[in-house]
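Tokenise the fold.
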Amino acid sequence: MAEGQTTTVSWVEMEDGCRLYVKILGDDWTRSKPLLISLHGAPGLSTHAEPEASYTFLSDAFRVLVYDARGSGASSHTGPYTHERWIKDIENLRQWAGAERFILAGASYGAFLALDYAISHGDRLYGLILRGAWANGKFGPMNVLANILTSNKVQADRARQVRLWSGTLIDDQDFEDSIQELLPFYAPPETDSSTTTAPESTEFRGSVKFYSATQNSAFGENMPRFDVRSRLHLIEVPTLLVVGRHDNVTPVTASQEIANGIPHAKLVIFEHSGHSPASDEPERFEQVLSDWIKAEGMLNPRP
């Protein structure tokens, strides 16, 4: 963030009493800058920390809004943890921020929510940024589970991983144990697994909280119903997809399928990245996003 800028922290209350922990990166009291909202992944595990680390570089040009989704981090653990409710929270935050339209960025599970939002509220968007997504919520978790169980990078407890990806975790400790054993799985091949952090989180060591109820809702209830393949053509805004060549969770083929279905989409593959190009190749990630934003005229978007 540029020298002299600040981060504004707010608690924003939803109409059902749920309080969301929200940060606006960069000081713009006049609200003259366009708004960018970035969604974190890993429900019940991740927080605003990953999108804050990934998108702070844009805070000179945008009001960058990041937050802990309900059921994650410091925000209230007030259900339901459904796509419909999470999307309503996005709409509430858009209105709270005073923006008629904005850029929406979603990472991993946040990309699934971003796809659903773009299909239902596309008139509210200038653009869409997706990192690590799939369009078919039935096939996606089964494919990643198959990759885990055949991987030579991890020694995973099979039954526990089945519980993780089917949304049937026993408790919060079961959730933590399942993620701990998966750390090397998320990294590109050349990364030292001893330095790998948890997916979607820059705070893993000793401070991340695990909420299995949120994860269970996401993968036990939402994912079996998530299938946007036949509706991708409804997304009319410019869309950027980024994916790591070595992403074992949301592989290149999944992003390619989405790019093929969205009329105005650009796919960029990061050759030295796993599931998190923003942290695996940060300089290139920032350059790719900056170039795309300029090329699409989003620094001074139309009203």
About this structure: The chain has two domains: 7-138+223-295, 140-218. The first helix runs from residue 49 to 55. The chain has a mean pLDDT of 91. Residues 140-218 form one domain.
